[in-house]
Each structure stands twice: as structure tokens, then as C-alpha cells.
């Protein structure tokens, strides 16, 4: 069953976060992920203000989890950890 990786991000260091984004994209693709939304226009109806929103679709929940824990993604994430405040979830797509 396909799954979505949904991130809500407040960037505090654009230069470091840019390094993360450059490295993370190819790793996500290697795990079968592709972006449905990546920092586009948005409108918050409820919840915390985060100016960047990312949705990627993976072939399965496990593929998304494996991507997150992969060496390549963890290397990319090292640039985002002190450069952003993030919420990231994986949710299966249901009919």
C-alpha cells in the first residue's frame, strides 16, 4: 500500500537547510519516493505556523521508513537538524 511522507518545516538556517534539500532529494528518489508538494503555496486552517510543507509519495510505508533510516538520508538530515524545526510523519494511503 502506498504511503505519504508529510513534513511541516520552519527553516532557521536557509544555507544549511539548502544543503539538506540538495542531498535528500536523490535519496528519496532512490527509495521510490517522488514529491507531490515541495514548498508550494499554502493556507493554514489549524495548527502551528510552518512556512515549508513537503509531501512525498513512496511505494509503501516501509519504503518511506527505510529511506528515513538510510545512511544517505541521515547524512542529509545532519544539515537540517540545527537548521530547522520539523514535524515528519509517514501515513499509508487508504481508498
Automatic annotation (TrEMBL):
It comes from the Bacteria. InterPro entries: Dimeric_a/b-barrel, DUF1330. Residues 2-92 form the DUF1330 domain. This is Uncharacterized conserved protein, DUF1330 family. It comes from Thalassococcus halodurans.
